[in-house]
Amino acid sequence: MQTVMNQMRIFSNIALRCGPNHTFTHHLRRTLCSSQDTKQDMRDPFRDRSRVITPEQSIQYLKSTAFKETYAHHKVWQLFRRNFKGQYSPYKSRSTCIIDDYVYTSNPCPICRDQYLVLHYTNMDLLNHFINPHSGYVYENTILCLCAKQYEQLLVAITLAKDCGLLTFEVPLRTYDYHEYYKHLDHNHHNHHNHNHHHIASH
């Protein structure tokens, strides 16, 4: 992409100097267009993400034989191994695996590598792959190894599923100081304490 930007910048400079109707300008324009068409033809079809997969298609895919043969009993992220330089894996994942509807990296994240995995709040079979069955919380991305864009979409989809009642979850236990809401409790408690103290003293 950076190369394309540099080519366009050079073309703009030449067009300004020679004029838009100059012979060399026309030749350079045809060369750039031909180069772009060649790059489009050379795109790997397995990395192309221009086709839109609907949530309904993804839901059917998770129930299909092809999905079972691909992932068996594993989670969709479980067998993924992240490539990185050095001894320790970086804490943050890449921002995205797809640019201009094309997987630009050789090791895309578990969601981006399979175009039929669509994160949507109605796709509960897929969302359950990312939720800890014991705690009910979403796994940390250090475990899932999703790109930042897909992990954000995962959190949004799970939140919408909870709001729509499609995903059950435990409400966290909250403690309240009722004296902040019911001021008369302090007054009643004080009077009750004085009454008990007076009753004991009279005996």
Automatic annotation (TrEMBL):
<keyword id="KW-0689">Ribosomal protein</keyword>
<dbReference type="InterPro" id="IPR001648">
    <property type="entry name" value="Ribosomal_bS18"/>
</dbReference>
<keyword id="KW-0687">Ribonucleoprotein</keyword>
<keyword id="KW-0809">Transit peptide</keyword>
<dbReference type="GO" id="GO:0032543">
    <property type="term" value="P:mitochondrial translation"/>
</dbReference>
<dbReference type="GO" id="GO:0003735">
    <property type="term" value="F:structural constituent of ribosome"/>
</dbReference>
<keyword id="KW-0597">Phosphoprotein</keyword>
<dbReference type="Pfam" id="PF01084">
    <property type="entry name" value="Ribosomal_S18"/>
</dbReference>
<dbReference type="GO" id="GO:0005840">
    <property type="term" value="C:ribosome"/>
</dbReference>
<dbReference type="GO" id="GO:1990904">
    <property type="term" value="C:ribonucleoprotein complex"/>
</dbReference>
<dbReference type="InterPro" id="IPR040054">
    <property type="entry name" value="MRPS18B"/>
</dbReference>
<keyword id="KW-0496">Mitochondrion</keyword>
<comment type="similarity">
    <text>Belongs to the bacterial ribosomal protein bS18 family. Mitochondrion-specific ribosomal protein mS40 subfamily.</text>
</comment>
<dbReference type="GO" id="GO:0005739">
    <property type="term" value="C:mitochondrion"/>
</dbReference>
<protein>
    <recommendedName>
        <fullName>Small ribosomal subunit protein mS40</fullName>
    </recommendedName>
</protein>
<dbReference type="InterPro" id="IPR036870">
    <property type="entry name" value="Ribosomal_bS18_sf"/>
</dbReference>
